[in-house]
Write the structure tokens for this entry.
Amino acid sequence: MARLSALYQDLILDHNRAPQNYRPMENANRRVEGNNPICGDRFTIWLRMEGDVIADVTFQGLGCAISMASASLMTSAVKGKTRAEAEALFDRFLGMITGSAEHEKPESLGKLAVFSGVSEFPIKVKCASLSWHAMKAALDQPNAVVSTE
Amino acid sequence: MKGGAAGQRGGRAAKAHRDPTFPIAVAPPPPPASRVTGTTAPLDVDRIREDFPILRQRIRGKRLVYLDNAATSQKPQAVIDAITRFYTAENANIHRGVHYLSEQATAAYDQAREKTARFLNARSSAEIIFTRGTTDGINLVAQSYARTFLKAGDEILITGMEHHSNIVPWQLVCEQTGAVLRAAPISDAGELEVEAFERLLNDRTRFVSVVHLSNALGTINPVKHLIQLAHARGIPVLVDGAQSAPHLQVDVQELDCDFFAFSGHKVYGPTGVGVLYGRETLLDRMPPYQGGGDMIATVTLQRSTWAPLPAKFEAGTPMIAEAIGLGAAIDYVSRLGLDAIATWEKDLLGYATERVSRLEGIRLIGTAREKATVLGFVLDGVHPHDIGTVLDDAGVAIRAGHHCAQPVMERFGVPATARASFAFYNTRPEVDVLVDGLVTVRKMFG
């Protein structure tokens, strides 16, 4: 049960129940689908880039609590960041959830630290990273479909 | 040297049926062959569980409650021992060696085929093709039968509750031939709409492929009736028996199906082996599915001729150990008796259905009157994967996802379901652990 509550922390359950930035964006200039065909998880990410800065980011979709909360917290985390900052944050986030960034304390990632328990559940890594992969694809190209399988 | 026994069996009918139209048997079917069907005595499940070593283990300190039997079943010691014995004492390639071990291996492999023929009540073991699994069997029929005999505008009829493996092979063959795939609708309860199925059968329909027991819904289709409807129009029928073979007594002569495919690993046997039963008159007309060793009569650099059934459809060295393991699994379930198994599982499914449906926020997916083994459900506000993760922490293994049946998920308007699927080694106390786990899920996510 301890292992389980480390995964499903309250902040994750809250964001699963009431995700932030959960809406389509009419004035978006980037839109990307993220799919996990094995799970059936499916997210759409909308971005509005102003120059090199992510001026706004929203999402909608269906998935488990981890993928839903991760998408919600991702939108808050990258909003207002430059492309390079967002990509660097994704790298650190991936390092945390895959357990490969042992030198870095999860707390340095702020709220995203709630996903540190994911490293104990290898099968959940793709859930936690799906929206991030989609966001990164949106930075790379305006319209893309990404898959975590 | 070609396998003597297998070769002789298939030879007799090889020239008998060359009618270009579909050869529905016009003679009345022969009386069912006598076979061992086990007793209907109730199962001693406590003792049966001891036959399954994997069930003794604990998962993170909790007793394993294995309720993912529709994905794959666990293996009794007898199956594990049969495979070990083969590799320890009998291993050799079959049908070609002149040495002692090859004779032993060939005999054991052929014996597994005989056991399978009796299990399905096939007329002859020449009608039993060993495949990699149900998917492989369906692809064999799609590529060898449908691709050969169907043309543009012909129709293939399936249902709205098929596993992807009974959809995609037909889509492939439709692309290759210009044939059209149709699907009969299902009701809100997850039952096939038989009248709609009947209306979809028409002069262009050339093949029907239907699931016997739905892996996502648990629905048992009235396949015997569907086969009668199709045969009235001269249309051959494949039955996808991946889920029915482990849970229902199957008699291919009584069903009068033309093909029946199932997987070894779902009937308590090993992975990597499956069975395609095919009506001999049809198999005789079909070209080989794959070319290679073991499936030939003669080979020159210009052309080759084919071995008689069943070798014609078994190119290459087959899954010898796995087929022998499957034979041991068939012996095991036959000793328990499919009727006794079905009775136990029906009680268990009834109990689970009653307990789970009383939980708040539960919606059952698949409420057909005729059901077996599968309890599919969704829980308000909780994604099925989270249900699966929380239950796993309690040692309970279920499946969460689309179950390779995305059209079924779409029909019920859900992205995924949670699915508990039962076998004869499951018990009421295990159902109680499942229910307790679901209560925890409610608390966490409520």
The longest strand of chain A covers residues 41-50.
